[in-house]
Write a structure and sequence with these properties.
This protein has helices spanning 3-44, 51-68, 70-95, 111-124, 128-137, 147-161, 166-174, 176-181, 186-201, 204-214, 225-234, 251-267, 275-299, 352-359; strands at 341-343, 349-351, 366-367, 374-375, 381-382. The protein is mainly α. The strands form 2 sheets. A 3-stranded antiparallel beta sheet has the order 2-1-5. The longest helix is centred in the N-terminal third of the chain and has 42 residues, at 3-44. The mean pLDDT is 86.
Length: 385
Amino acid sequence: MELDLIQDAFDRVSKKQKLSSSKTQQLVRQIEHEIEQAIMKMQSTENATSCPELKQILADLKNKLNEFSPMNQLETLQKDLNITLGKYVKVTEKSFNPDISKAYRNVDFDPHIVNQIIASHFYRQGLFDLGDCFISEANEPEAAALKTPFLEMYGILESMRRRNLELALNWASSHSEWLAQNGSNLELKLHQLQFVEILQNDSVQNALSYVRKHLAPNASAHKVEIPKLMGCLVWSGKLHKSPYADLLSPNHWEKLADEFMQQFCSCLGQSYQSPLSIAIAAGIHGLPTLLKLESVMAVKKQEWQAMKQLPVPIDLSKDFQFHSIFVCPVLREQGSDENPPMLMPCGHVLSKQSIVKLSKSSTRPFKCPYCPLEASVAQCRQLHF
């Protein structure tokens, strides 16, 4: 599916619509101006009851309106917009297959798990009323427990938007060990922003006391950050003119809010992005290949849905790659803990089962299927993925 083509076509429609709206408003303002001028002339005539003068003013108004032909201009603008919209419809119809059921494979799944995934999606998006309505209509009362952690997360985010870091700092403090184990300096960044807020809105003494209380105990781990904050004290009242003016950028708050969401979801054992959104996006990305495969297999009178492995690869791009995946080029099977990838001395990688089959024994050398070099099982090294 050429989503880029659809996006480009949509952008052209949007641009044309904005241009048409702008010119239409400009045309309306021009008509209003001419009418207002005519009214002023009529009101300023010495003899307001003089029919010839009034008729002349109305005639002049009519001539001016005919000069720029507002109706013709409006028709031209609408025609151009309709042409662009028509092209967008054609691109959409060409890109989207109205019957996608041909690319569907019957899969056994637990409807309760699917309902929980949908409810979790609503809650992680902050759509709590919609999530509550869904679990009520789906009769999934146990899914209500999914709401609690996201209520906490959005409560903290709302406080951060009001530049109140108390809740975020409390959360980071209670999860400091977990954050450190995951290599996150979220807590430090929160303290930095809090320090800047105190320096800007309170006093130098309180800002210094804050550093001593919260950052000094771990000064050895903050050898870069603490001197920078101390430098800010010298520029109190004019921090925006200092070498540390970047600390005042609103981008720090936005980035920190995103980082907080990532760490919060990770702490829950969940991904930052909604699994439901990712699954749907991946399905949309791979759908054209599946539809084309179905049409080709139908011509050959073959059934692809019964296959354990698709005869063609589906490239989902790097946006959908979250884990390393190894597929043995010999057996064409995905690696596993029982059949891990093995690095040969020549640099090529095969699965353990492939190497065992090629060697026929643990001591006998065998030839790499991709180069002339030989190796033995003992010379191959297991890779972790």
